């Protein structure tokens, strides 16, 4: 049977989600527990492979198992063995044709920056320090230029290996917080470093270093060097993963056309209900 | 000349202040920078040697140097070379007979716990998770039993090597926060694990597992096993270090007699003003 885990992790002390040659990874921690339980290797499949230092408030992974445990027992088995910076928030059995990556039809990311007279050591690794003043209105105006379906070559790492760089942005909002700004973006999917490059570009605009009006031309250039630098990983949170059209429709402007990728039919009901 | 640094650090990824055989320490990070600047080893002396995992909102260290730099240049030299989890907040030249440890006449610690349906991975290492309900009034009533000068053998690690276990507690207050409790204690000094054992004991009282009325007898027992366990390091913050009688007098109830240890005359003015 196929099991879906919903989990959260603090990325500060991980080399990212995916197993690397060296360093702690989220995948390693989960597969280590599964291996002990099954006395055999069990592969997990995430909805998203977050980078080094990136946090997840909501991530999904699925795996196949012959063990017949209740959701509560699975959750306890993981949480009692996981380190303090990963926590399994929910467990459900799902249909065997459900895939956490292929059935993901959208993701929401949040990017947190704080302003202060000097770096706050207690926020190290979990928020980005940015001392400069930013123009909120300019950033929000500029963010709207990303909406819709575009080839985001200019806004992803030059190392991106994937061929199809077309993605759809459903909403992009910058909010003032108590001591800084939150950038909140929802899209069909995001390329390597894409959120961090868009955020840094908006911060440059908010600081008056770049013009909001230039974004369409920068997108059209399909050239990484046309856009701004890459904001640090520590402020980035994978906030939500959309596995159903209903969930996604609730969080984006009414009437927005939802793209379901790979021509797969997206689930129309919560997989936990199946 | 003698230089005093005021610094702050996030203890989550340190093996404590003092250099150990293995692992990152705050002392190592500071002495590494001084060695590079002096092309020679320069020893630093802290006001307090915080344990593994304990944070400092305010710590002092002093060192002697033949380099003639302004306070700004010293601060920049450190902050541009220190890792993100240490920050030098102020630098002053001080008299050569001033010693950051011997002239410390008091310390304030804060202990932070949060309550939630489950562990918050973003608070890992920086606050202690405690899901149980606590009685604030009972904890505050019990905390008053620690005030005054006592032999704190029952409330320090059995591994404490120091002979004289007499310390003076000037104030002890428990506050309700947005999502938990803050324990705030000011004393002449604290023994090994002393704050963490007192806090855990108060938490046990707040949960109805121990009685406030028993504290005087537990102190009198001079036996570590008479008191509660040791609360985790991650919630503990060295919040303030008092180098002058004036500073300490401001933070404790008016008229409280201040003990100056080692018969040394405590500074009566801010050392930065000398």
TrEMBL record, chains A, B:
Residues 9-102, 142-240 form the Pseudouridine synthase I TruA alpha/beta domain. One of its GO terms (molecular function) is RNA binding. Formation of pseudouridine at positions 38, 39 and 40 in the anticodon stem and loop of transfer RNAs. The gene is truA. It comes from Macrococcus carouselicus. Homodimer. Keywords: Isomerase, tRNA processing. This is tRNA pseudouridine synthase A. The active site is at 51 (nucleophile). PANTHER family: PSEUDOURIDYLATE SYNTHASE, TRNA PSEUDOURIDINE SYNTHASE-LIKE 1. Substrate binds at residue 109. Belongs to the tRNA pseudouridine synthase TruA family.
């Amino acid at each position: 049977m196929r099991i879906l885990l919903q989990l959260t992790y603090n990325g500060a002390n991980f080399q990212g989600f995916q197993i690397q040659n060296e360093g702690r990874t989220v995948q390693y921690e989960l597969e280590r527990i599964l291996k002990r339980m099954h006395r055999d290797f069990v592969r997990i499949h995430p909805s998203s492979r977050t980078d080094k230092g990136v946090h997840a408030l909501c991530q999904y992974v699925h795996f196949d198992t012959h063990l017949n445990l209740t959701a509560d027992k699975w959750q306890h088995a993981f949480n009692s063995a996981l380190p303090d910076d990963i926590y399994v928030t929910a467990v459900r059995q799902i249909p065997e044709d459900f895939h956490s990556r292929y059935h993901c039809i959208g993701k929401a990311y949040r990017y947190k920056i704080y302003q202060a007279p000097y770096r706050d050591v207690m926020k190290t690794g979990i928020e980005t320090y940015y001392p400069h003043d930013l123009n909120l209105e300019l950033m929000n105006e500029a963010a709207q230029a990303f909406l819709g379906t575009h080839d985001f070559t200019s806004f992803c790492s030059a190392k991106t290996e994937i061929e199809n760089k077309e993605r759809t942005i459903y909403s992009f909002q910058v909010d003032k917080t108590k001591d800084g700004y939150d950038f909140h973006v929802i899209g069909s999917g995001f390329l390597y470093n894409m959120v961090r490059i868009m955020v840094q570009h908006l911060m440059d605009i908010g600081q008056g270093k770049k013009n909001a009006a230039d974004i369409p031309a920068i997108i059209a250039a399909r050239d990484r060097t046309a856009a701004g630098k890459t904001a640090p990983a520590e402020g980035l949170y994978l906030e939500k993963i959309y596995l159903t059209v209903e969930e996604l429709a609730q969080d984006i402007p009414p009437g927005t056309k939802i793209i379901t990728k790979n021509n797969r039919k997206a689930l129309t009901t919560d997989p936990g209900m199946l």
